[in-house]
Write the structure tokens for this entry.
Amino acid sequence: MNTSRQETRSDVDELLERFFKSEVPSPWPRWQAPVRVCTSATATRQRSEKVHQSRFALAVTLALLFFGSLVLTGVFRSAPSEPGGARESDTARQLVKPAHPVYQNR
């Protein structure tokens, strides 16, 4: 069983080797330096404007994420209604409190 696998593997290896050698150009092309293209001032200005626009968009997005997280976590809650610091939820608890003698001393 190992012999058939080795023979099959060598057949596949030979097939792949022939394929890749056929894909590679026989005389390898000589290297040519890339041609330098002179950019105009307008192209440079347009590129810098795009960079500034994308940075501004990123800054706005980060600011919205930051302030949105603050709003969702409740940092900007309304000011206490009484000078003692009681909030609406505290006054609601006092209204709901049963009139049982045990609770009147609290």
Notes: Residues 13 and 69 are 58 Å apart (CA to CA). The radius of gyration is 38 Å. Residues 47-75 form one domain. Helices lie at 2-23, 41-73, 88-96, 101-104.
